[in-house]
């Protein structure tokens, strides 16, 4: 029996890859020479605005290999690429540069952006709006819903999608920061015992009543930390204060204030950033897009 198995293995190895097999024209395979194109105005804008000053690449040409193969996704509308990336630069990059310096952003900004037109739906009914991988790559979804003041078809309700975009970016960059230098362990003890994998079965209001800034904050201390960052920045001081002051439970309000203090001190002590100043700049930039 053993000799038969060896014999079969030899036959399989022999027929699996013959030297004379014709593999065809490999230049037609994406990534092996078949995906070249002449630089467009979009490519030149990305080069001059992001690649040269920050060594950042943004991929908007469709490549399913960059994304989950089990998800149904759509390419971004090319008419949205420059408006989206220009807004990202104004709201996110420029404000961090103003507070922390260009060298900080050149060092910590993700070097590769993958842009997707549609949402990334999960089997539990939730939506992934963005992902950050190893501090080097960010995938952004739902670009085709992005419309700001002055763009064709813009209505005030679109401001929700704009704010959601920057919430996502600030969230993912918050991960990059804490993965570089961890936030204080004291943060994890504020809501210890209240974190849950069933966060998607609760509302933001219910999460607020437990001392969380959003429902997703309940998923883990890391997510809680970056949700505090992203909500405080994207909502601005007035929006954040409205959330906290709208909570009737004094214990829950106190937990959020404790988390706020740790976030603000973390930015100051670790990165030398005045968080409240960054918060004001960020929200003012968002307002300029939607008001």
Automatic annotation (TrEMBL):
It comes from the Bacteria. PROSITE patterns: PROKAR_LIPOPROTEIN. InterPro entries: LP_HExxH_w_TonB (IPR030890). This is Substrate import-associated zinc metallohydrolase lipoprotein. It comes from Niastella caeni.
